[in-house]
Design a protein that fits this description.
Layout lengths: L1 H15 L16 E9 L5 H10 L12 E9 L2 E9 L10 H4 L4 E7 L3 H18 L8 E6 L11 H11 L2 E4 L6 H23 L21 E5 L7 E7 H7 L14
Parallel strand pairs: 1-3, 1-4, 4-5, 5-6
Antiparallel strand pairs: 2-3, 6-8, 7-8
Length: 266
């Protein structure tokens, strides 16, 4: 019996070669990607309250307005881990010395309080600064306009239509939340910022396979840049509105381009 087994093993070795041992190597998990988010806005708009709410799920009403710091937390967004770093800025009179955060940020959240018209008007300076800086960058830095303190509805000085109009003007996302009420709505805003960063990164590195000459692409073929927005389903008591101009849509639609099979432009 032993001889038969031995001869069978010999025949197997002749046919398939010698048996090899496989070393199983454990591959370490990928380090989470990083996303740097800068919180901008006038003093008293609720920047620190939003930051603390996102990081700790708690609401604290009093902060040192002169304190500026950067915090980090690990999040999982769409089943993908990410290390989120949040810079809570302390500008007193609009965007001053903004170089310290412009080159650092992957995304910006510009905050105002719906019960303070002055804080809303200050957002225009911040939006002009960050959009001018990020123009032409690859990838672009997404911007979110955020109306805070919807719990102060009866004292509202800035209508939702005002927020939508400004967001349309600067082609950014728009949300309204309350830092003192619902954690999920605040978390949703930060997660949307992370998603937008990922989309911009993918868009900037994805190769385009074009079968026509660039000279064949004319500006007249591009769709007109008309603004649009839509209401999003709201988690808990959040009031969220997403605003995008068709400028972003025009990036995704190129009527004169022909792609090779299996590729898409987003």
């Amino acid at each position: 019996m032993r001889n038969r087994t031995s001869s069978a093993s010999s025949r197997m070795s002749l046919m398939f070669g010698k048996a090899r041992t496989c070393n199983i190597v454990t591959v370490p998990e990928h380090e989470p990607s990083e996303c740097n988010i800068v919180i901008l806005g006038a003093m008293g708009s609720g920047k620190s309250a939003l930051t603390v709410k996102f990081l700790t799920k708690r609401f604290i009403s009093e902060y040192d307005p002169n304190l500026e710091d950067t915090y980090s937390t690990e999040e999982v967004v769409d089943q993908q881990p990410v290390l989120v770093k949040v810079m809570d800025t302390a500008d007193q009179d609009g965007p001053v010395n903004c170089e310290r955060y412009l080159s650092w940020a992957n995304a910006f959240i510009v905050v105002y309080s719906i019960d303070n018209r002055t804080s809303f008007e200050a957002c225009q300076q911040y939006l002009e600064t960050v959009t001018l800086y990020s123009k032409g960058l690859q990838p672009e830095a997404p911007v979110i306009l955020l109306g805070n303190k919807v719990d102060m509805e009866r004292y509202r000085q800035v209508s939702k239509a005002d927020g939508v109009a400004m967001a349309l003007r600067f082609s950014c996302l728009f949300f309204e939340v309350s830092a003192c009420l619902d954690f999920l709505s605040v978390q949703h805003v930060f997660h949307e910022a992370i998603r937008e960063v990922r989309r911009e990164t993918e868009r900037s590195i994805r190769p385009l396979f074009i079968s026509e000459d660039k000279s064949a692409i004319s500006l007249s073929s591009a769709p007109p840049l008309t603004a649009c927005y839509k209401e999003l389903p709201t988690p808990a008591t959040a009031k969220l509105v997403t605003v995008k101009s068709s400028r972003a849509q025009s990036k995704r639609r190129a009527p004169t381009l022909t792609l090779l099979k299996g590729f898409k432009i987003f």
